[in-house]
Design brief:
Layout: H1 3-6, E1 12-17, E2 21-27, E3 37-42, E4 47-51, H2 84-97, E5 102-105, E6 108-111, H3 123-129, H4 141-153
Antiparallel strand pairs: 1-2, 2-3, 3-4, 5-6
Length: 154
């Protein structure tokens, strides 16, 4: 797929931000090959221009944002676009907004330290994950342990 098909009006991108690291913006006009400036509107309604010819991070165009339906996905590999802003945003949504500390990235378990004790390690949780396949239930350290145990026994 050509870049001009991806960077069209109403699609959303991530642009570098000094305070928040990445900020979401909507494309206002279709991108045409050869252009160096992308017309954007930030989430707060202000207009912005992304001049990728002088981008300090070295990217040619800003990373595309995933569709809203994928926001908070429990496996990062299910995202349409897997890059730094997509991973950080997904982890933020899961941890800050939903209070979920575990997220899969394929067979890898990503954990965000909540810096407090959580009631997610009791006997009932152990039994819930016992005998289950990884991915059948929400991401959890017990799912990884169960998968390791099954593979060792096999």
């Amino acid at each position: 797929m050509a870049l001009s098909e991806l960077y069209t009006k109403y699609n959303r991108v991530w642009i570098p931000d000094a305070e928040h690291v990445w900020q979401s913006a909507e494309i206002l006009t279709d991108f045409k090959p050869g252009e160096t400036v992308l017309e954007l509107q930030l989430e707060d309604g202000t207009s912005a221009k992304f001049d990728h010819s002088v981008n300090i991070r070295g990217e040619k165009l800003p990373p595309l944002r995933n569709p809203d339906i994928l926001v908070g996905e429990n496996d990062l590999t299910a995202l349409s676009y897997l890059h730094e802003p997509a991973v950080l945003h997904n982890l933020k949504v899961r941890f800050v907004e939903s209070k979920i500390i575990y997220t899969y990235c394929g067979i890898i378990l990503v954990a965000v330290n909540p810096y407090k004790t959580l009631p997610i390690y009791g006997d009932a949780v152990i039994h819930a994950y016992s005998g289950q396949n990884m991915g059948d239930l929400d991401p959890h350290i017990f799912a990884v342990a169960e998968e390791a145990y099954k593979q060792m026994a096999r």
